# Entry
Amino acid sequence: MTYKILLLPGDGIGPEIVAEAEKLLLAAGDKFGLDFSFTRGLIGGSAIDASGVPLPDETVALARAADAVLLGAVGGEKWDRGPAHLRPERGLLGIRKALGLYANLRPALLFPQLVGASTLKSDVVAGLDIVIIRELTGGIYFGEPRGVETLTDGTRIGCNTMVYTEAEIERIGRTGFDIARRRGRRLCSVDKANVLETSQLWREVMVRIAADYPDVELSHMYVDNAAMQLVRAPKQFDVVVTENLFGDILSDCAAMLTGSIGMLPSASLNETGFGLYEPVHGSAPDIAGQQKANPLATLLSVAMLLRYTLGEAAAADAVEQAVASVLQQGLRTGDIALPGERVLGTAQMGDAVVAALRGGV
Ligand code: IPM
Ligand code: MG
# Structure
């Protein structure tokens, strides 16, 4: 059987890091007897340049025909002045919505070798292993009405709407409980129920479905407190489940606990387990094309792809071990190097992970 993988390199550092992911998938295929075929599609700014829109219909069709999608990053200053519907980010939001990828899993795991790379004290972050589950196709990112308009008196207003149906909350809530069940059995639902009606409904639904998961301990936290607790005592968390915008913000915060946002992978899944995999970081236009980007978040996204969509757990474990092994060897990209440490380029780091994978058991 051949697994069909759609590669969406996107903008900025996207092409460089996706090239490393492709190498790694081929190497994992060799080692574990898996066959991969690759197609490529356009998304974001590069799609705007080529076809005038951030998400060509063809890209969605290619994704539907694939077993899984691996995405680099989208965005860049070049496209920032266009109208809202022609921004590169709309491509990313559009593909999430079109494929129904409502469950975004963002694990923040601190490799012990990187404990010194975090800006937080070692004892605060050592051993950190949490997962943020972000609702990805609802909330204020997609709610209507939205837009900027001019009232009759000439006042301009900007408007977005945070809206969730009970079914949307229940679906992501169950994802949270299911994942907590496979880990430390603690689920923290993050909301702003002291102010927002959306959050009050969110909390009510979480409490209702908790009855189906008596083995998981459910707690609730307001999002402002959660942001503070993430940097104060992040190890108190096991699995966090939250709405789209809160999850966007908290997952960047969690990323820094692990030393660098360049280390954080993500999986965006739909009801069938089909998924789009991408690093949590953005397109970093300032270092694009310079071989300075850390490919490890993308390579760890490959591990998630193998695990969640393809069900190839042995290959996924091997990729994660290969990443741990290069870190153990002291290999670093610029973002995770301490002063004086030798810095590898993007492809050199990718090659090192491939070598570790081939050499490992
Ligand atoms: C992310 C990013 C995106 C988001 C942007 C690029 C649209 O920040 O995946 O976290 O806000 O979802
Ligand atoms: Mg974000």
Observations:
- The pocket of 3-isopropylmalic acid (ligand 1) is lined by residues 75, 89, 92-93, 248, 282 (CB under 6 Å).
